[in-house]
Structures are given as structure tokens and as C-alpha cells.
Amino acid sequence: MSDKSTSVPGGSIPGVPGPQAPELAEPTEPREPLPPKPDQDGPETVSPTGVPTGAPKSSNAQSGRYLTTAQGARLGDTDHSLKAGPRGPILLQDHHLREKITHFDHERIPERVVHARGAAAHGVFVANGAAEGVTRAGFLAKGTETPVFVRFSTVLGSRGSADTVRDTRGFSTKFYTDEGNYDLVANNIPVFFIQDAIKFPDVIHAGKPHPDREIPQAQSAHDTFWDFVSLHTEAQHHTMWNMSDRGIPRSYRTMEGFGVHTFRLVNAAGETTLVKFHWKPRQGVHSLVWEEAQIINGMDPDFHRRDLADSIEAGAFPQWDLGIQVFPDTEDEMFEGIDLLDPTKLVPEELAPVQIIGTMTLNANVTNFFAETEQVAFHPGHLVPGIDVTNDPLLQGRLFSYIDTQLTRLGGPNFAQIPINRPHAPVNDMLRDGFHQDADHSGVAPYQPNSLDGGCPFMAGADMGAFIDVPTEVPASRKVRENPATFDDHYSQTRMFFRSLTPVEQDHVVQAYTFELGKCYEENIRLRQLQSLANIDERLATEVATGLGLEAPAPSVVVEDTPPSPALSQLGGTWPVAGRLVGVVADDATDLGALNEVLSAVAAEGMVPLVIAPHGGKLGGEVTIQRTYLTARSTEFDAIVVAATGAPAPDAVDSLDAKAGNPEGHPSLDPRVTMLLAEAFRHAKAIGALGDGGSVLMAAGVPVDAPGVVVGTPAEVTAGVSGLLASHRVWERFPTMVP
Question: Domain span at residue 707?
């Protein structure tokens, strides 16, 4: 029997499919189901009404040694239908066939209209007490540990789309507090396309594939999207964020989260404060470059979900700090001239610093994707005492929409009883019956007031932890379909965001707009969007227009200049490197002692080393190979270390691997190694080489004296690469268009 996982010095390689390695022969001795892998967890075992059962989590899983029907009858054959003779027709009385096929036919539920493609994990949130002065929410009291379940997602694509498309990402967290479930339904962008929920169907219809051909999938580079956002200029701020590097995150682990809306907190004294929620990743905010994203979409469309699961399995648990920006709860609900109810506006951190109120750690993968990731139901109206909503018109619409959509997706009103959605607090809601009612309610009086059930359930007072809707003044006014005048500025913050970026980030924005608008068929849509760009920034409009072969228009409105916000740039800091992937190129001529030294040093830094070699198996009978020249691509790795000659492998021919690109015979260097190094260099990644490996770099066209290239001993290379990865990329390799 082989080892359960592939070991490397100092750690293990994630990706093992099961908790136990299989035997070569088919097992024949009956046994109980295998347990989940060590990195997996499931929902807590609470009853449908929120009572802890004390049962192990395995009680929710399949049990028994033998295959059974759904009713528990053991089966002796599941390979052959019941027929009238070996060649006869199948009989209607085959109850097992009908049960098996009927269940299979109904395995899929409707996918989410938006955020259909997602990945999720379990974790824990620990509060530091900094929020105790502004909210009485119990889970934010100092030292309180709260189980959480987090689902990340893309917005536009279907369940079968790719991870690394340019899109907004969802970042939704369910806190299982002892006061009930609280859902923070967030995005990785702090502003939204629209100011009023009534336009949500419009922006999604515009962003989704064209209804006649169902293309393009999971992208905004098409006419209907740009038609909408160029006509609804309130969308320009969110669109600018999407066209920045924020639209293509490196990982869910390196992605910020924002509650978008302004929420109202209430403390124990009944005092109220307005806040915006922020998730700050401990590993920093990092992105892919556009070419990387395009390659990954073809090589590994599951890149983000694999990265999340692998990092948890490898023990590099992702962490985020939860923070709040705090504002006085004034009558006008404004702060420094910014309307806090406008979801297309942000408040720069220089004006209102983010105060950290706790830390979340994701430490367990899901046990079953459908039962947990697909069936989890979030809702911004899942609130706890101490947190309330505001009159943000986008948030107000979401309070209706999220409940409504679960009725269709999850088969009725009892979706809160699905294990992943069950509160960890007692539930006595007087709600009865309906599809998928799993609770066995007792009593005869599910109404209030009653005497037949002894008056139970009773009302709770504020001193008993009741949720209190914060009394607020409703402005005396006419019923109107209007926005306040403070919602009218669509460009000043968009300009601020663009001008807060570094030159290399601005270049990426120019490239993104040029690509997206270049995919539009109608020239008038391009011209209309160019007008908005001209109102935002003259250089931006000019360079995009040049790429499109059009004239840049003059600004059509006067836009206020606001100071840039350095906090909006992703560059300039250093961050922990735990969980980063380092590809180590080796072959049969590699010094195994030096190779093991590199692998140990990389693992000791909390990074994950993956050995790339000409063939599979082991090097020298001891070092396991995780990738071959055939299966590897630079986009999987954050850094590359060369410890090989790079000589061509036997399959370095076009007929076996098109990446080899060598119809004339074998060169001195395998073309896949050349491509690996050239791409890594072009994408500004750290590159190292042991000793004579420098000659391999030179042969691949990588200058050994270039920024971000380290040549030396195993210790020198590992230290150098680790130091470079702290900044994510070697940014000085990117020339910029800014003078």
C-alpha cells in the first residue's frame, strides 16, 4: 500500500483524493465507509430546530457496509436491471432501477442566477472586543469564537464556467452565533453597479450571455454589458474596479471583501453608529495578470477552488481580519460629503480608517460540495441583535430578493433546516409544514397568544436578547420614484480610484478597457463608453481610444478632483508567503541532496513545493514528482526554482505535446522548460536557479542579472525567492506607459 499523501521534507503535498490510498485490486472484504479526509469538516449536528444533538458529524453521512435502497433494504446487484430474460425488456416492477434513475434525474437543483460558480470552506471567527463599544452583538464580544462557513463565487458565469474570468467575486460569510445566524453577504469590490435594486435584473441581464446565442460565457466583454453601463453612468465606478487588477484575483485567499452597504450598529445603551464592513486578507491583496488568467482558463478552469482547498489541506489556513469604518449616525447619513446610502460610493480609508474587530481562519474543507457549498443560503436580512440595516435602496431590495430566490432553488420555505443552514441557537418559530419539513413539531397551538401550549413560545424583552429594530425617523415626503441629488455624481470617485493606482496598475486598466471594448461589435457603444472615460481621466480615454482606432472625445461634464487614496492600490507592501506554490524543476541528473534542501527550506517557510520533472514517478527512487513537463504550466506557480539541466524529455515533440513546439528535433533545452521560464519571467514572478541552473535560465532567455532572479546555493535561492514573494511580483520588470 502506498502512503496516504505524497510527503516532502517539512510537509505534505495537497490534492490526495481520499483518506486512504487504494489497493491495486478491487476490495472484496465488506467494511464501514471511510471517514472524511483530515482537512474536511461538515455542519454541526444540531436538530432542525437548532438543538445540539451530541451526535458525531459522521451521523449525517452514509453508513453501513452494504449497498441499500433509500429505505435501507440491502441490495445484491446494482449493475443489471430486472429483465424478462437476459435479452428481454426491462420490467416496470424493478423498484431499484426506478429509485436509482429517478433520484439521478433530480440530482440537480436550479443553479443560482448570479454567483452560480462558487467554492466554500468552514472556519472560525474570533472577536478582539474592539466593536463592543458600538454593538451589542454577542459574537463580537472579546474572545468569542464563532463557527463560520464562507462561500466565494463569481457573479456572471454558470456553474460550469471558469474561475479566473474578469468578474466581481462574492465573499459571503455565515456566522453561527448563539443569538442566531448572521450573514455578511459581501463582494470583493466595495461599490456596486447600480444605486437601486429595481435595476438589478437589468444589469445582470446585460452582463449575462446574449439570450439568442448564450455567448459569451462568464465575461463582460460584449455589447449588451457595455451598452448598459455606458447608458447608466452610475455603473462607471464599479466598472473601473472590474477593469482593474481587482477583477482577476490571484486567489480567494488574497482577496478583500466588502459589505458594500452602510449598516447600522446599536450598542447596549441603545446608541447607534453607521459602519461599513471590510475583510482584509492577512496575505495581502494580489491579482493575476491578464495573460495568466487567459492561460489558466484553458489549463485549469478550477484554479481558484483548487487553490482554496489545497491551501487548507496543506495547513496554510487562509485568514482575514474583519474591520469596520465607523461614522456618526447623523440625520443626513452623510460623511465628509459622501452619501453613506449610495452603494456606488466608498469612503477612503484615509478619511475613516478601518478598525479591526476580529480575525477569521478557514481551517476545514467541505465534506460534500452539494450538501454544503450548493445548498448554503445567505440573506442580508439574517441579522442578530446589535446589527441592523439602513435605507440604502439597493440593500432594501436585497432584503426581499434573497429569501424569494431560495424558495425555488431549495424547494420551499424550510431551507433553514438543511444542515449547513441550521442555526446553532434554539429555534421556536411557529412556522409549520411546507416542502422538506424535517422538524417534528409538538404542541397544538402554533400561534400567539395561546394558552393550550402554556403560552409557549413567549416574547423576549430587550434584556433577554431580543432583536430590536432600531427606531429611525422616516422623512415626511411624497411617494416618488427618484434618487436624492447626492446620488448624481458618477465620476469623481471613479477618477479618484484610477488616479490612486500605481502606473503599472493603470496600464492594466487601459489594457482591460481596450480589450473589453474591442470585443464589442457596435462602434457607437465604444464611443459612448469612451465619453465616460474622457470624463474620468484624459490619459485613460486617449490610450483606450488609440487601441480602438478611434478619436478620444473631450469631457462632457466638469468632475471634481478629490485626493487619491493610496489604500486603493494593491502594490507597495509586503505580506506572509505561507501557502504560495513554488515549482522546482528537476531531472534525473539533479543533485538529490541539494533538491531535498530546497524542498525542506521552501516547506519550512509555509510554502508548498511541487517538483516538475521530465517524467512521473520518483527521482532517485526517493523524491516524488508532482508535475511533468507535459502537465505543468507557469501559471500554477508563484515562483520557479531550476535545479535541472533542462534537457529535452523523450516526449518533447509536437505530436505528443503541442507545447513542445519543436518540429525540427530536440534542442539543448526542453521547449516546455523554456516556455515555463519565459512565461514566469514575463509575468514578473520570482525565479531561482541552483548553481549551474543559471545556464538553463540564460538558454531560456532569462537574464540572470535581471530583477527578481536569484542564482546560488539552496539556502540563498530559497531565501531570495521567499523575500521576493512577499511583494507578490517583481513589479519593476513591468515597463509602464506613464512618462
Answer: 581-733
Residue 66 lies in a domain: no
Q: How wide is the angle at C-alpha 655 spanned by C-alphas 651 and 661, nearest 5°? A: 75
pLDDT in tens, 571-615: 999 999 999 999 999 999 999 999 999 999 999 999 999 999 999
Answer whether 236's CB lies under 8 Å from 229's CB: yes
Q: Is the pTM of this model over 0.85?
A: yes
pLDDT at 383 over 90: yes
Kindly report the CATH number assigned to the domain that includes residue 677.
3.40.50.880
Active site residue 382: no
Arithmetic mean of pLDDT over the chain? 92
User: What is the grid cell recorded at 376?
Assistant: 448554503
Does residue 142 fall inside a structural domain? Answer: yes
pLDDT in tens, 317-357: 999 999 999 999 999 999 999 999 999 999 999 999 999 99
User: 138 and 267 share a domain?
Assistant: yes
**Does the annotation list 398 as a binding residue?**
yes
Instruction: Report whether 151 belongs to an annotated binding site.
Output: yes
Is 402 part of any known ligand binding site? yes
- Give me the pLDDT at residue 15, please: 84
Q: Does one domain contain both 655 and 564?
A: no
Is residue 524 among the annotated active site residues? no
Is 554 in the same domain as 585? no
Residues 529, 591, single domain; the answer is no
Question: From residue 189, how far is each of 141, 192, 343 by CA, in Å?
Answer: 28, 7, 11
Judgement on whether residues 287 and 372 belong to the same structural domain of the protein: yes
Which of 122, 128, 181, 187 is an active site residue? Answer: 187
Query: Any binding-site annotation on 74?
Result: no
CA 424 to centroid of chain Cα atoms: 25
Amino acid making up residue 571: L
